[in-house]
Write a structure and sequence with these properties.
The complex is a heterodimer of chains A (262) and B (257). Helix content of chain A is 81%, strand content 0%. Chain A is an all-alpha fold and 262 residues long. Chain A is globular. Chain B folds into two domains: 164 residues, 3-Layer(aba) Sandwich (Rossmann fold); 63 residues, no CATH class. Chain B contains ten helices and nine strands. Classes of the chains: A mainly alpha (262), B alpha/beta (257).
Chain lengths: 262, 257
C-alpha cells in the first residue's frame, strides 16, 4: 500500500497510536491531579535513552525501564505522604538534567538529543509503528480491565478499601501504563511534550462529557485528530511535528472552552 | 475485654489491643471493642482523638502497628466517608457512581436512593449536589451491597442541626428496617447519643463506654467535654420523646455543646 509507505502516513499512524493510549490515561492524570507525576516520569525517560545508547539496548526499553523506576519511586514517596508538589518538581527537573548530562558523556556517540526531547515522528519506521501500537494495545487493555476499580480508587482510597479495591494496586496499574505511554511517545512527541499529549485532550474533552467513559472516548478522538492534523500542518508549513501536534491539541482546548461558553 | 463464650459469633467486627502509629506518633493505643449484630454504636471524642483513624483501620485502609481487627467471615460493610471531594474535572452521574466498582441494576440503584431518602437525583452530576444530598448518595451507595454493618465517619459534617437530626433518623429507620449494625463517629454529641445503643468515648484510647446516659455522666467524659453536654443530652431526650406535640421548651442549655 503506497499510502502506508509514505513517511507522512507512517507519522500519522504512529501519532494516532500514541494519542489513543495517552488520552484515556490522561483522563486519570487529570482526575487524580498527577500532572507533575507524569512530567517527572516522562523527563526521567531521557536518562533511560542515555543508558540504552550506552549499553546498546533498544531505546524503547531503556526509556520504559527508567520511566517505570522513576514512577515507582515517586509513587512510593507519595504513598508515604512525602511527595509534595515541590518534591515532584525537583524529581522531574533533576531527572531531565541528569539525563541530558549523561547523554553528553557518552563516548563515541553523536546523537541528536533534540530528537528525544521533541520527538522525531517523521523518522518512524514500520518497526516503531509495531512497538507503538503494541504498547497502546497493552495500555488500553490494562485500562479497560481495571476501569471500574481505577475509577473507585480515584474517588478516594478509603472508599476503595471499603469496596474491596486496593488503591495501591490501582496506582501501580496506572504507573505501569504511564511508563509504557512514555516509552512509545518519546519518538513521536519527545520527553518534554508527552505531558501535553496526556493532559490537553483530556482537558478539552471534559466540557463535552457527562460520564468518565465519554470523556475518555472524546479525549481519544481529540488526540487522534490532533496527531493527524498536526502531522499534515507540520508538513505544509515545515514546522517541527511533535510541537505542531501539541499546538493543534491546544487549539482544540481553546475552541472547546469558547464553544461551551457560547 | 474478657470474651464470653459465643460472643465471637455475634460480634460482626472487633478490634483487639489496637495500636496505630503514624509518622512516629502514636494515634491510638490499647483499643478493644466489638460491634454486635443490629446495634448502633457511636464513637465520640475531641478533634485529633483518633476517631476517623479507628474507622479507617476497621475498614482495612490502615494496618495496625499492634493488635488486630477481626471481621466476621464475608462481612458486608457499607462505608460512608466523611466527605468525598470529587475533582470537578471528573464527570460522574449519581447513577454511574452507584455502579462503582460493581455494576448494579437500575432497580437496585433506585431502591437504595429511595431508602437513603433521595429518590430524584440519579441523573445529576455528583459535583452539583449539596452537602446533604451528597451524604445521602454516599449512604445509598453504602446500602447497595445489603450491608451487615454500616460504618459512617462524621456523616453529617456540614449539615445544619435539622439536617443532621433528619439524617440520623434515617439511619435509625434503616437499622430497624434491615437489622444492620451501625458504627459511627460524630462530634454532635447530643443528637447522636440519643440515637445510640452504646457510646464509646475515645481519646487515643477508650476513656469510657456504655449507654449514652452512663457515658454522659462518666467523669472521663466530662473531663473531655465539660458538664454542660449532659444537660443538652437530657434536653434532646426530652425533645425527642415529645416530638409530636411541638411544645416550646427553654433551649438555654443547647449552647452548651
Amino acid at each position: 500500500m503506497i499510502l502506508f509507505d509514505s513517511f507522512l502516513a507512517r507519522a500519522a499512524i504512529a501519532g494516532a497510536g500514541v494519542a489513543i493510549a495517552a488520552a484515556p490515561l490522561g483522563c486519570f492524570v487529570v482526575w487524580r491531579r498527577m500532572a507533575y507525576f507524569s512530567d517527572a516520569t516522562a523527563h526521567a525517560s531521557i536518562l533511560g535513552v542515555a543508558l540504552a545508547l550506552t549499553f546498546d539496548a533498544p531505546v524503547f526499553a531503556g526509556a520504559m525501564v527508567v520511566a517505570l523506576l522513576m514512577a515507582l519511586l515517586i509513587s512510593t514517596l507519595s504513598g508515604r505522604g512525602m511527595a509534595s508538589d515541590t518534591a515532584l518538581g525537583v524529581a522531574a527537573h533533576s531527572a531531565l538534567a541528569v539525563g541530558l548530562v549523561a547523554v553528553s558523556l557518552l563516548p563515541d556517540v553523536r546523537i541528536d538529543i533534540v530528537a528525544y526531547l521533541f520527538g522525531d515522528i517523521l523518522a518512524v519506521g514500520h518497526g516503531d509503528i509495531a512497538i507503538i501500537w503494541g504498547g497502546a494495545t497493552i495500555v488500553l487493555g490494562l485500562l479497560s480491565w481495571r476501569w471500574s476499580a481505577l475509577l473507585t480508587a480515584t474517588l478516594g482510597s478509603d472508599l476503595a478499601h471499603a469496596s474491596g479495591v486496593d488503591p495501591r494496586r490501582e496506582q501501580l496499574i496506572l504507573t505501569l501504563a504511564l511508563a509504557i505511554v512514555v516509552a512509545v511517545a518519546i519518538k513521536v512527541v519527545g520527553a518534554l511534550l508527552i505531558g501535553a499529549l496526556l493532559l490537553i485532550p483530556a482537558a478539552s474533552a471534559r466540557r463535552f462529557a457527562a460520564t468518565p467513559e465519554a470523556m475518555a472516548l472524546i479525549a481519544s478522538g481529540i488526540g487522534i485528530g490532533s496527531a493527524a492534523l498536526g502531522v499534515w500542518i507540520s508538513w505544509i508549513f515545515d514546522t517541527p511535528t511533535g510541537p505542531t501536534i501539541v499546538c493543534v491539541a491546544a487549539a482544540a482546548f481553546i475552541v472547546s472552552s469558547v464553544a461551551k461558553r457560547a | 475485654m474478657p470474651r464470653l463464650p459465643g460472643q465471637r459469633i455475634v460480634s460482626l467486627i472487633s478490634v483487639e489491643g489496637l495500636e496505630i502509629r503514624q509518622g512516629g506518633r502514636q494515634i491510638l493505643h490499647d483499643v478493644t471493642l466489638a460491634v454486635r449484630k443490629g446495634e448502633i454504636v457511636t464513637i465520640v471524642g475531641p478533634n485529633g482523638s483518633g476517631k476517623s483513624t479507628l474507622l479507617r483501620a476497621m475498614i482495612g485502609a490502615i494496618s495496625p502497628s499492634a493488635g488486630r481487627v477481626v471481621r466476621q467471615e464475608g462481612l458486608r460493610i457499607g462505608y460512608v466517608p466523611q466527605s468525598l471531594p470529587v475533582d470537578r474535572n471528573l464527570p460522574l452521574t449519581v447513577r454511574r457512581f452507584l455502579s462503582l466498582p460493581k455494576p448494579v441494576s437500575d432497580s437496585a440503584a433506585k431502591s437504595a436512593l429511595d431508602r437513603a431518602g433521595l429518590p430524584q437525583v440519579a441523573r445529576a452530576q455528583l459535583g452539583a449536589l449539596s452537602g446533604g444530598q451528597m451524604q445521602r448518595v454516599l449512604l445509598a451507595r453504602a446500602l447497595l451491597n445489603d450491608p451487615q454493618i454500616l460504618i459512617l465517619d462524621e456523616p453529617t459534617q456540614g449539615l445544619d442541626q435539622q439536617g443532621s437530626a433528619a439524617f440520623y433518623r434515617q439511619i435509625e429507620a434503616i437499622r430497624s428496617e434491615t437489622g444492620c449494625a451501625v458504627l459511627m463517629v460524630s462530634h454532635e454529641l447530643h443528637v447522636v447519643m440519643a440515637a445510640s445503643d452504646r457510646v464509646i468515648c475515645l481519646n487515643g484510647h477508650i476513656c469510657c463506654e456504655g449507654h449514652p446516659e452512663q457515658v454522659a455522666s462518666a467523669p472521663e467524659y466530662r473531663a473531655l467535654f465539660g458538664t454542660g453536654t449532659q444537660g443538652a443530652l437530657a434536653l434532646y431526650r426530652h425533645e425527642h420523646t415529645h416530638d409530636h406535640h411541638h411544645h416550646h421548651h427553654d433551649h438555654s442549655d443547647e449552647v452548651a455543646e
